[in-house]
Design goal:
Elements lengths: L1 E5 L15 H4 L1 E5 L4 E21 L7 E6 L2 E8 L5 E22 L3 E2 L1 E7 L12 E8 L3 H10 L4
């Protein structure tokens, strides 16, 4: 069983390149009485994907856990520090399903948001886009995806 939390705290954002809305970082999914928190995300197509996992220390503890993607450990003993926000940036090639698992080492694992982008090849002469197309966002603030869509006309 997992629980949701919502705290109004300030965070040190110096290690986060992106600028997720504070409301996203002030909410989290946290394990309750189990050692594993898992998200299974079906993807639209077989392909290469860029994934960002957001973490922010909103509970009065500093949990540590292993992060696995499709069964492989991508970050061992990841620490979420109290009052600090951080992000893990991952690339997965040739996948059609995404399984993100956090296995507890100390305290309960938590996650604040997940962004998944399909990596596409766009010839330079065709477009000025970066080659990343948002395809899945798991956020505790659903309006965030709407704001991204309206800003970039993505048609999500």
């Amino acid at each position: 069983m997992s629980s949701g939390f919502n705290f109004l705290l300030g965070f040190n954002l110096s290690s986060v390149i992106e600028s997720p809305p504070p409301a996203v970082l002030q909410t989290a999914r946290v394990l309750a009485r189990t050692d594993v928190l898992t998200y299974n995300l079906p993807l639209d197509a077989l392909g290469d994907y860029y994934i960002i996992l957001y973490f922010a220390g909103i509970v009065p503890a500093s949990p540590s856990f292993d992060v696995l993607v499709n069964g492989d450990v991508v970050q061992s003993n990841y620490h979420v520090k109290m009052s600090e926000a951080s992000a893990l940036h991952l690339t997965q090639k040739g996948i059609e399903n995404l399984n993100i698992t956090m296995k507890s080492i100390s305290f309960y694992p938590q996650i604040n948001a997940i962004e998944v982008y399909e990596i596409v090849d766009i010839p330079l002469e065709s477009s000025s886009t970066t080659g990343l197309i948002p395809c899945k966002c798991v956020l505790n603030d659903p309006s965030y995806l709407d704001r991204i869509d309206s800003s970039f006309s993505l048609g999500c």
